[in-house]
Each structure stands twice: as structure tokens, then as C-alpha cells.
Specification:
The structure is a single chain. The chain has 213 residues and is α+β, with helices and mostly antiparallel strands. It has one domain: L-fuculose-1-phosphate Aldolase, CATH 3.40.225. 40% of the residues lie in helices and 18% in strands. The strands form 2 sheets. The chain has an 8-stranded mixed beta sheet with strand order 4-3-2-1-5-10-9-8, sandwiched between helices. Strands 6-7 form a two-stranded antiparallel sheet. Helix 2 runs parallel beside helix 4 and helix 3 crosses helix 5. The longest helix is centred in the C-terminal third of the chain and has 24 residues. The protein is globular. The mean pLDDT is 96. The chain binds zinc ion. The site of zinc ion has 7 residues, from loops. Zinc ion binds next to loops.
Amino acid sequence: MLLEHERTLIVEYGKLLLERRLVAGTSGNLSVFDRGNGCIAISPSGLAYERTQPEDVAVVDTAGTVVDGLRRPSSELAMHLALYEKRPDACAIVHTHSVFATTLACLDCSLPAVHYLLGFAGKVVRCAPYATFGTPELAGSACAAIGDSQAVLLAHHGLLACGADLAEAFNAAEQVEYCAEIYWRARAVGTPSVIPDGEMDRIIEKFADYGRR
Ligand SMILES: [Zn+2]
């Protein structure tokens, strides 16, 4: 089976997305890119995470053509392909509809660094202008807005996060959701202040160092 290890990871992290309440039902999707052989393992379209087996995970090439797997790839395949092309540092992508990140996205609101843990995703998580789900327009909008962050909000839709591996992309998605909730709560009772740019640089450097250890 092509990309057997990566397909197993897609199954495991899919269940984790449900467990940590970052997705509901069959919403959201995730992928891993083996840049060595140019193949991407991506969650199948419309299949419950708890029922997904490694052989259900679709394997596509960089043009999106299915090369292995029993099922159709996720309907957001175009967004995954576009982001891998835009970001050579990304080898994994997690897309969620997590509640607090999506709340901000429904306000067309970017997420500033009001809490240091946002550093796992970048200095800011911008909100990409709305486009219909599953379209090349949405892929283009997300790629234009993400900048050098590890995550981007998708207006009236959800969150897209990337990383060097699935653990990193998943962590970025989870930390953004946490920071989005904190931001929402802080905004409800006052005006939160933002951590200065230079301090965020320092935090991001410390996180990178932490990761290496
Ligand atoms: Zn979605």
C-alpha cells in the first residue's frame, strides 16, 4: 500500500480531531505530503473519522490525480495542493471548523497575538476573504492570506493550518482554537492588548528551540 505510514497517521489524527472537538461529523480534512516521492495522503470525502481505515485514505499526486485508495479525496483537495505549492516548508495540513476560530472567521476578523501560544501559528492569523468551499477561489484566497504563518482563518468557514509534520499542523490548529477562545472572551469584557512584534519573534524562536529538544 502506497504511503502506508502516512495513511495510518491520517486515520489517527482524524480521530484526534474529533476527540479534541476541532471538527464535528465528517467536516474538516487533513493530509500529509511525502515530498520525496511527490505523493499526498489525504482524508477521504464524506467518510466518518471513526470509520476511516488506512485503505480509505486517498493518495494523489501533485496534480490531484488519485494514484491509490478506495475512495474519493476530500472536497478541499485543491486547497491542500495549492498550499503545498505555496509553502515548501509544509508537509502536513489540517483543516477544521473549530468553534472559536470559526466564530472569528464569521466576523471577518483576524486573530492577533493576544496570548503567547499563538506563536505556534505565527505572529498573527489572518482571515482570508470568503470563497465557496471546495473551489480554486478558496484555495487562492487562503494561500494569499496565510503569509508566513502556520495558519489562516477562512471567512464564514473555518481554519487551515500547516506544519512540517502532522503533529505540528495539528498543534497549530489546536493552539489557534485556544487563542481564538481567549480572544473572544477577552473581547467580551474589554479590549485585549497585543504582544509586540519583537516579543513574538522571541517566543517563536523559543518554540523552535523547544521543538528541537
Ligand atoms: Zn471546511
